[in-house]
Amino acid sequence: xxxxxxxxxxxxxxxxxxxxxxxxxxxxxxxxxxxxxxxxxxxxxxxxxxxxxxxxxxxxxxxxxxxxxxxxxxxxxxxxxxxxxxxxxxxxxxxxxxxxxxxxxxxxxxx
Amino acid sequence: xxxxxxxxxxxxxxxxxxxxxxxxxxxxxxxxxxxxxxxxxxxxxxxxxxxxxxxxxxxxxxxxxxxxxxxxxxxxxxxxxxxxxxxxxxxxxxxxxxxxxxxxxxxxxxxxxxxxx
Lengths: 111, 117
What we know:
The complex is a heterodimer of chains A (about 110) and B (about 120). With about 110 residues, chain A is mostly beta strands.
């Protein structure tokens, strides 16, 4: 059974710092890995999608990597801003075509 | 382009009642997926509909059901509500769906917050 773990559960950093969020999964048989952010009272917003054959994806200040063999992904946020404060979730599309989710990392960027 | 809309946004029901939640996908999207989010279990996949057919179902009891209409709008129904059904219910739409394309981006609605008393 696929399980997705995110570490840390919460993170608070000063504005301007670069940071890394971690995601691990137990079964390497995935079709893709996706990173989302969730803001209070709002739905989820897709940030990056990495197909199983890819190693990384970039969008602006965000860079996500995928190491399928070790079951790990990282989300790198450069030059963090207060607007980056949110809960970040990773999810894998498993062999049953279901999205399996991590519990999320709550990120607070202090001005 | 209008985003994914969900109605109602908030709902309060009592145990034993049933509830119907609605999701209108982005125009042109044929796939709608439903998820349950709770503090204890996190986000869990409920089911996916594509072109009016249930294409996939998560590990939830039969009290949870859904359907999709010809205009791709989807409804989910929960019968005989239990306290543990209190959750944020999210729907997401996409072009080809979870089984249709590994590159499909999922677009989420704001969710329906269900409270069961």
